[in-house]
Specification:
The protein has 229 residues and is α+β, with helices and mostly antiparallel strands. It contains six helices and nine strands. The strands form two sheets. The chain has a six-stranded antiparallel beta sheet, covered by helices on one side. Strand 8 and strand 9 form a beta hairpin. The longest helix is centred in the middle third of the chain and has 19 residues. The structure holds zinc ion.
Length: 229
């Protein structure tokens, strides 16, 4: 079959309901005769005055060049919806098909019996595969949640070392744009995807998603130079 707008919009609505909690607004769907891809999530980006990158004008584009099985066409729609979900929520992945993409894809394949793949040429190395298995494990993380004056939320995974945590919080609070730093301890595997470091490089995250993932987390606070659990 060759996908048309009606097919894609119907599948988008269904998978949005089943897999994304109906939280994705329907973006413009475009068809092309391109021979180099089956689907693409396209958008424009601009740098804001405060250094943040804003993504806008998100669209999903599908090629009608290839005659493919309906099931495969559905998986292509899901693949592009994962890109769309990541961009729409302003998540910063480690690569175009980075850890966030892969963990969402694997989760969907497992829970919905799908076969969504990453079609890029290089494929996953053995090392990456191992990382993905590790990404399902429950590990304890010290999570710093940062709130900026403009209402943006960022997340940072810190080494589990008291002095480094205290030091990070102190440095972060000295940054003018940062209004608040909260600390949590949690073993939710969602947080495995973020690198552990004390650098002031922070992953932006949708507040609602973060709230969801922090359910059951334990609050940490600093008192008299010590971390209190
Ligand atoms: Zn892709």
């Amino acid at each position: 079959m060759r996908a048309d707008i009606k097919f894609i919009e119907e599948k988008f609505a269904r998978f949005n309901r089943e897999m994304f909690g109906s939280r994705l607004p329907l973006p413009p769907i475009e068809l092309t005769d391109a021979g180099t891809f089956l689907g693409k999530c396209v958008y424009r980006g601009r740098l804001l005055d405060d250094g943040r990158r804003e993504i806008y004008d998100l669209r999903l584009r599908f090629s009608t060049r290839f005659d493919i099985a309906e099931r495969v066409a559905e998986d292509v729609v899901i693949h592009e919806m994962i890109h769309y979900f990541i961009n729409y929520n302003g998540l910063m992945d480690t690569a175009p098909h980075g850890r966030i993409f892969r963990s969402l894809m694997e989760c969907i394949n497992r829970n919905y019996g799908r076969n969504v793949t990453i079609s890029h040429k290089s494929g996953a190395t053995a090392g990456e595969m191992q990382t993905e298995v590790a990404d399902k494990l429950r590990r304890w993380h010290v999570i710093a949640v940062l709130l900026t004056g403009t209402g943006d939320t960022g997340v940072k995974i810190l080494p589990h070392v008291e002095q480094k945590i205290i030091d990070f919080r102190r440095r972060a609070m000295q940054v003018r744009q940062i209004k608040r730093v909260d600390l949590y301890l949690h073993d939710e595997p969602f947080f495995n995807q973020f690198p552990t470091s004390t650098a002031l490089r922070i992953a932006r995250i949708a507040p609602q998603l973060l709230r969801e993932k922090l359910t059951g987390a334990r609050s940490l606070r600093i008192e008299n130079g010590h971390l209190i659990y």
